[in-house]
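Our collaborator T.R. sent over the components below with a one-line note: 'Predict the complex.' Nothing else. No constraints on interfaces, no templates requested, no preferences about which chain binds where. So this is a plain run: every listed entity goes in together, and whatever single assembly comes back becomes the starting point for the next discussion.
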Amino acid sequence: MNKYLKADEWCIVEEGFDPKNHRSSESIFSLGNGRMGQRANFEERYSGATLQGTYIGGVYYTDKTRVGWWKNGYPEYFAKVLNAPYWNGIDVEIDGIQLDLAVCEVSDFVRTLNMREGYLERSFVATLSNGNQVKVCARRFISMADKEVAAIRYAVIPLNFSGEMVFTSYIDGDIKNQDANYDEKFWDVISTDSQKGEAYLQSVTKKTAFQVGVGIKYAVTVDGQAYVTSDDDTIVREKYAGNRVSVYGEQGKEIVFYKYVAVLSSMNHPADKLLDNAKVVVKNAFQKGFAQLFEEHRSEWAKIWEHSDITIEGDVEAQQGIRFNIFQLKQTYTGDDARLNIGPKGFTGEKYGGSTYWDTEAYCVPFYLSTADSAVTRNLLVYRYKQLDRAIENGMKLGFTDGAALYPMVTMNGEECHNEWEITFEEIHRNGAIAYAIYRYVNYTGDEKYIEEHGLEVLTGIARFWAQRATFSGERKKYVILGVTGPNEYENNVNNNWYTNKIAVWCMKYALECMEKVKAANPARFEELIARMKFDCQGEVAHWKDIIANMHFPEEKQLGIFLQQDGYMDKEQILAADLDPAIRPLNQHWSWDRILRSCFIKQADVLQGIYFFEDEFDTECIKRNFDFYESRCVHESSLSPCVHSILAAKIGDMDKAYSLYLRTARLDLDDYNKEAHEGLHITSMAGTWMSIVEGFGGMRVKGGELHFHPAIPESWKAYSFKVMFRGNILNVIVRHGKTVIFNEAGEEVEVTVNGEKRRVAKNSKLEI
Amino acid sequence: MNKYLKADEWCIVEEGFDPKNHRSSESIFSLGNGRMGQRANFEERYSGATLQGTYIGGVYYTDKTRVGWWKNGYPEYFAKVLNAPYWNGIDVEIDGIQLDLAVCEVSDFVRTLNMREGYLERSFVATLSNGNQVKVCARRFISMADKEVAAIRYAVIPLNFSGEMVFTSYIDGDIKNQDANYDEKFWDVISTDSQKGEAYLQSVTKKTAFQVGVGIKYAVTVDGQAYVTSDDDTIVREKYAGNRVSVYGEQGKEIVFYKYVAVLSSMNHPADKLLDNAKVVVKNAFQKGFAQLFEEHRSEWAKIWEHSDITIEGDVEAQQGIRFNIFQLKQTYTGDDARLNIGPKGFTGEKYGGSTYWDTEAYCVPFYLSTADSAVTRNLLVYRYKQLDRAIENGMKLGFTDGAALYPMVTMNGEECHNEWEITFEEIHRNGAIAYAIYRYVNYTGDEKYIEEHGLEVLTGIARFWAQRATFSGERKKYVILGVTGPNEYENNVNNNWYTNKIAVWCMKYALECMEKVKAANPARFEELIARMKFDCQGEVAHWKDIIANMHFPEEKQLGIFLQQDGYMDKEQILAADLDPAIRPLNQHWSWDRILRSCFIKQADVLQGIYFFEDEFDTECIKRNFDFYESRCVHESSLSPCVHSILAAKIGDMDKAYSLYLRTARLDLDDYNKEAHEGLHITSMAGTWMSIVEGFGGMRVKGGELHFHPAIPESWKAYSFKVMFRGNILNVIVRHGKTVIFNEAGEEVEVTVNGEKRRVAKNSKLEI
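Returned assembly:
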């Protein structure tokens, strides 16, 4: 844990400059707009420890797999989010001395991430080696209004001298991923160009051949007046293009350097038009100017907050935490492009490479369903639909046949990138989450059409996988699923993971149910799909039903709990609370075999299943399982506490629910796991949102209606959240002893609160 | 399978040159003397596909670990057998044209490995691009008499022309391991020197700082007469030293180039004396000359064969196969240096890196016990004794305490080198084999003293490991051993592998038994050891006894078999014979998860335990287990068929025993697994020997006496083997219906043949 940030309801604030926190701050203060993003690297040169990171959604590189011992079926490469050409740089030379915070004396340093308006600001006073002092204030944003534009306002005031200021604004194409497997560079620079006032660079990724064009343009004001030089300001070097301008700074007068940036990729432009288009985009931005661009950007953020804000009264840190999570999620994924997805680190770091994990379906979908137009979640579903062929190919690679689809553990373009057999080949429950997201989407939105349009094909591919993956045990006379890794990755290659068996059976059931629905609603489409999928309506259906009816589910009957897997009770049963704190987290202290043979659980596993299918279990059953597994869970995955928190709230244990909530809400801000410097835990941030809305708020969707069961942590005065639901926008405000639901938009709506059906009229509120 | 070698009783013969077989031949025709060895690379330059390999026992490099996903407890490096300075090269230029078999026309090519005399010979006629024809005959050996010496006789006859012959004899220090993890070179060359007639090179390994000094000296004869030139013959280049001599060759007259080589390492010489000593060694060799050196070498091989030959009548291929196995084993390990061990590929390739696996104890010990002085096996035991502290450190690294020793999976110097969690951390049965080798040695030799001198400490460390590794299952009320990989590596992270549980209990029993013996025989030594090991004679003994009495052993009672591990019967029970041959070997066709969840067995597992502890089981029980597991075993480890073959012979199934024998005996000669080009399966060669002696011959040692139960494969006329046993040398000759046992050396001896006790007098024979 590292608590160095100031609590504030709307901002993240760092006061004073401590280089040892800088890499963490670079992650935490990251900016993004769903299309591209950047770590909070300083504009001016910085010779201290930094992780320079600039990313463009969907632009990836296929890095050759690195593995100690090759196994059949491993992919040839790991597709990685790419560190892209760096457009952020403005070198500043003051009377011949380079401004560098690692070298000069720094005072009055304040770094602020304004989440309400979506900008990063940094101000400080630097005293250079010759005693010259400057005050700097740098603000930048990546536009939510125009996804290809960023702008920087970099203001310098000479405090105790007058002298020459030289600004060098550049694009650096000589970029490297720190996590490159073989220390290779992934980009070739195609062209560099610098002309008066502007510069351009075009690069192409090796192997994947994505092209990116970056344009920059600058303006300078001195004491508020436009400053124009007739000097040649162009610089072109190998893999580098920029402009250099010298300005005489008078003591006390502000010089502002504006940098306008356009970042275009071949995903959205013809490669041969990239630079032409970049010129247009950057020129437009330049012409609008910083203030107008910012206003457009700010107003987009206002719309986002309008729909997704959560307020907490009486707990500033909790308030800051939840807003930070929402802010970073919205910076990562905005849902307007079905080719993009939600990387576990978003645009804040390189770790985990590829963009798409089951995190998206299992954790992020509820957040986007409630806080954005349903088209956003639909795009997440369509992303997987478009990759169905690849999932079937992936299944074939592992020996499955006849259209069985195994979605990859990690992917960019639908191909598996992961290479660790116990996960790549065995953590197959991910396939279930992809089906479950379809269910969630349809259940939430009522968009039954999606099933026939796209959903049924995905569901059938997944169900076929399970039908082949389950085998019949002659000994048990039951179907079994052998050799899997469940959500709890502290068990590998186990037999009959309860969660996996559960979701496998559910997938087959749901696929059958959807088939029946499509058949009834649209027989022609049904016939078309059956024919296309070569689906055997007799044989396959009978086989699935047989598995559904005869699956083995491990249980411990005496304790009345579901068993995480066969043989779990053979382990020494020790409680997490009895572990010596010095050996926590276990994954940093124990060898892997010791972790595996212990009873300790990395993240919700049986409880993940109970969370997904809670209607099947009574509260007593949930409580027994919660008590058993929570006491053995070490929550060493960022995805774990939220599910436990929701269930704790469900069984009425609000103290537990609150303490679990805290583990997730400020995970990165307080750097619980000492890894914020690598990037943020973006996908788990959605879990924080779920902890409040589904946990404390008790929100569920049943039969096309919203249900709430509000509760509030002891230490809070009130909290509120908004949900968009089938045309309504509901604002739910929970205080101790009182819940208010506003129907802000849409017709009268029926909701169930604490089990009672209530109606909320248009533009009015319900108090309970 | 690739059958291109000629059957011959004493030689391996390749007729005709096919470059596509060359890399395999380089492995098969390898030479070694236990101290050093070399693949059968051509002396003259060869521009075709080749794997150049020169190795020195014990000289290794610690190559930085390469791994996809790091796990706690992985070692920092993988210690590798090093490709060492190359001393074999003699470039030949004929009238300005380089002799290179990849380029010229080759006829009458014959390559011969004479196993009786231990030399490699190659003769061919080469037609160069200008039509010039030469006949070449090259012979070389690595001396068994002087372990630092090698010699080459390279003879050339110009067949259809007279012209200039230039011989360049060199040492190349610019050497690379093909399997380097990061493509680095492991050697620095310290000095190079060339003087008239001789050249020297000294190198040092990076990080491990082994030094090697190589000296070469040459002589030339023309038509039998010594040829001396007054020209300057010295060449020194970077990392290279040699001599170059030009000789006028007359048509039909033989020019012979003799190269004498000394290879010394800092393991046996002070580093600063390496070159001085190399000069002396190479000078001595030069002075003795090729013929005398060869005679000394040949006579050492005669002694080796005298004790270790196995003859087979009526099956030339089987005869060749078993001799090849014995020959290669004896080339790899001679047992005069307790710092050395038996690498899985010996000196024939780079694969598998480190030198020591459990192969040594489980497979090689019986061979060396019977065919060499008992000091040889004792050295293998002492090797592990000396590494006990490292094994205890290794245990500590994985969280074990109080002197618990876990010997590494792969090692050079006692430290673990392996980095694949399911093996490194979980294939812990290896620890049992190390204890079992002590038992075997003492049982065979009667050297009870070894226990108190070294054995007990090792046995205690190992037993302590098992006592900590076994945990108590509250559910079963039994001890369990969770999360292991058994000998069958087609299962990972299983619970209660029967073999592992079996050998764990046996280790604790045997350690207790040995403690009692030492206590009775030498109480003072016992007290000393107890004190040194801080052994708790009450608590630890009681705990071990509790585990011994209450270990869980999985069984399938209906079938009357021991179960490979918990849950094995949940697998789909398919027989290996029913597999489509197109998907064999499975490890080249199936993804790892499919292999893991199948019932197919890579190598003897339950049967390995039955082999080790056969006296505990009656023949019916062995038969039931054999039938069950043999039908599920795909024998995709070279270490597997021998154990099955021995048990097949034991239960009287000679057809099966013979067919399993064939799988192992000619594994490399016929290249069953298409991997001979990477090097030979040295350690499994000992299994071939066991198949004959313990399998067909039925040899066992019980109560200090030899037992035989001879049987003979249908197709053989006779076979014979020799065993050295407690001062006797017995020659056992088995024919159909008749066994003869000669007592060649030692006093009268009692043997049990087919259950009957018989006596064989000194220098006489017993016929049955």
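Summary for T.R.: Chain A has a mean pLDDT of 96.
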